[in-house]
C-alpha cells in the first residue's frame, strides 16, 4: 500500500506530495498508524473512497420513516415514498 | 576538518523532520566510572584510586519551538509520549560521510511541555529524553 506525504515536513525522507510505501516508513524507524494520526501522510488511494461515501445518503432517502402530523401531533405515514 | 557553526542541524524524530522547529540540540554520553581500587598487595600500597568504565547512559536534549498546526510539532510529539521513538541527528545537513556523521538512536519520549513561556515570549518546549540502548554513529555514504 502506498501513502502520500501531506505534511509540510519531510517525512521518511520524502517531501509533500511524494509517495511512500509501508516498507519505506518502517525502514525509517517510523510507524504508519502514527504518521496517519499525526496528519503527515494519507493513503495514496484515499480519494477513491470518497464517491462511495457520497452514495450512502441516496440509499437512505428511499427508506420509509415515520413522520408526525403537525396539527394533532399524531404519527402518520410518509406518503412521499 | 574545519570548525563548524551549527546552522543546519538535521533532526528526524519517528521519521518526521522537525529541524525547522528546533533551536538547540545536545547529544550526551556518560559512562559510569566503576571503582576498582584495591590494596596494593606485597610491599606496594595503593596510592591512587583506579577505575574502569561501566554502563553508558545516553541522553538527548532539544529545544522546540511549539507549533499546534496540523503536521507540526505538537501533532508529532504528543502521540509519541511514553513511547520509544527512533531519532536521527546530523550536525550538518549533507550526505552522510566521515565529515558529516549521522547519529542514530532510540529515545524514550518521557517528557513534554506543550505550553511553556511568559508573556511576549516564544512558546518553546525544552526536553531531555533518555536514550534506550546505544548510539550508532553512521559515516557510511
Strand percent estimate of chain B: over 45%
Oligomeric status of the shown chains?
heterodimer
Distance between the termini of chain B: 18 Å
Largest sheet of chain A: 3 strands, antiparallel
Number of strands of chain B: 7
Strand content of chain A: 15-25%
Q: Would you count the extended β strands of chain A for me?
A: 5
- String of helices and strands of chain A: EEHHEHEE
Shape category of chain A: globular
Most extensive interface between two protein chains, with residue counts? A-B, 18 and 17 residues
Major sheet strand order of chain B: 2-1-5-6-7-4-3
Radius of gyration from the alpha-carbon trace of chain A, in angstroms: 23 Å
What does this structure look like?
The complex is a heterodimer of chains A (81) and B (141). With 81 residues, chain A is an alpha+beta fold. Chain A has one domain. Helices cover 35% and strands 17% of the residues of chain A. Chain A contains three helices and five strands. Chain A has a three-stranded antiparallel sheet. A two-stranded antiparallel ribbon of chain A has the order 4-5. The longest helix of chain A has 16 residues. The two termini of chain A are 43 Å apart. The model of chain A has no long low-confidence stretch (mean pLDDT 76). With 141 residues, chain B is mostly beta strands. Chain B has one domain. Helices cover 4% and strands 45% of the residues of chain B. In chain B, strands 2-1-5-6-7-4-3 form a seven-stranded antiparallel sheet. In chain B, a hairpin with a 2-residue loop joins strand 1 and strand 2. The radius of gyration of chain B is 20 Å and the shape is elongated. Chain B starts with 9 loop residues before the first strand and ends with a strand. The mean pLDDT of chain B is 95. Classes of the chains: A alpha+beta (81), B mainly beta (141). The interface between A and B is medium-sized, with 18 and 17 residues.
Amino acid at each position: 500500500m502506498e501513502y502520500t506525504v501531506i505534511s509540510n515536513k519531510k517525512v521518511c525522507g520524502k517531501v509533500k506530495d511524494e509517495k511512500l510505501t509501508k516498507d519505506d516508513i518502517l525502514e525509517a524507524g517510523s510507524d504508519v498508524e502514527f504518521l496517519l494520526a499525526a496528519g503527515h501522510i494519507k493513503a495514496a488511494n484515499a480519494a477513491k473512497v470518497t464517491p462511495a461515501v457520497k452514495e450512502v445518503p441516496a440509499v437512505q432517502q428511499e427508506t420509509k420513516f415515520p413522520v408526525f402530523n403537525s396539527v394533532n401531533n399524531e404519527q402518520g405515514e410518509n406518503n412521499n415514498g | 576538518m574545519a570548525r563548524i557553526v551549527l546552522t543546519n542541524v538535521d533532526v528526524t524524530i519517528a521519521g518526521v523532520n522537525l529541524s525547522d522547529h528546533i533551536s538547540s540540540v545536545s547529544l550526551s554520553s556518560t559512562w559510569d566510572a566503576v571503582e576498582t581500587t584495591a590494596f596494593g598487595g606485597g610491599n606496594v600500597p595503593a596510592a591512587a584510586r583506579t577505575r574502569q568504565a561501566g554502563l553508558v547512559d545516553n541522553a538527548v536534549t532539544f529545544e522546540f519551538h511549539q507549533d499546534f498546526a496540523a503536521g507540526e510539532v505538537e501533532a508529532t510529539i504528543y502521540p509519541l509520549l511514553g513511547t520509544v521513538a527512533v531519532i536521527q541527528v546530523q550536525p550538518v545537513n549533507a550526505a552522510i560521510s566521515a565529515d558529516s556523521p549521522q547519529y542514530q538512536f532510540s529515545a524514550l519520549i518521557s517528557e513534554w511541555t506543550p505550553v511553556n513561556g511568559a508573556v511576549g515570549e516564544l512558546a518553546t518546549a525544552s526536553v531531555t529524553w533518555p536514550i534506550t540502548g546505544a548510539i550508532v554513529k553512521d559515516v557510511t555514504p
